[in-house]
Amino acid sequence: MRKALIQLNAAVFLWGFTGVLGRLISLNETWLVWYRLLITVISLWIFYGLGKKIKKLPSRSILYIGLIGTIQALHWVCFYGSIKYANVTIALTCLSTSALLSSLIEPLVLKKRFDPIEILLGLFAIAGIVI
Questions:
Q1: Is the CB of residue 23 less than 8 Å from the CB of residue 79?
Q2: Whole-angstrom distance, CA of residue 112 vs CA of residue 104
């Protein structure tokens, strides 16, 4: 339990600190994301590549993962761009709505019913954002 709490607090700290660093770093948002991804790829390659944990994937999976990665990269470019042009508070407020948007889009994509609890919690989230 204590380990999970420490991990949660570390994740929240890093999540919030990302915006502050994005504001302080003088690179434009595209180069910032490029270097961030480069560091991640090198780190993961060292961690998994040297440990022989990388498995061969089918071509379809590689294309699917590449598409998701491209969308994620565009998301980060927009996130850091919003920090550069507005401020960290606005960017993190918008970023925090992603869970709300996911809960609203999921029933439409998966063609299932809306969960009334998720709608209620979404209204609370909107009220918190307005405050």
A1: no
A2: 11
Domain boundaries, the chain: 2-86, 97-131
Find where tokens 């850091």 sit: 80
CB atoms within 10 A of CB 118: 16
d(CA 35, CA 63): 22
Distance, CA of 77 to chain centre = 11
Cα-based distances in Å from 34 to 14, 39, 51, 64: 19, 9, 25, 20
User: Do 91 and 85 meet the contact criterion of CB atoms below 8 Å apart?
Assistant: no
Query: Dihedral through CA 119, CA 125, CA 126, CA 130, nearest 10?
Result: 160
> Strand, helix or coil at 114?
coil
pLDDT tens sequence across 52-104 = 777 788 889 999 989 988 988 888 888 888 888 888 777 777 777 777 878 88
Phi, psi for residue 46 in degrees, rounded to 5: -65, -45
Instruction: Please state the pTM of the whole predicted model.
Output: 0.68
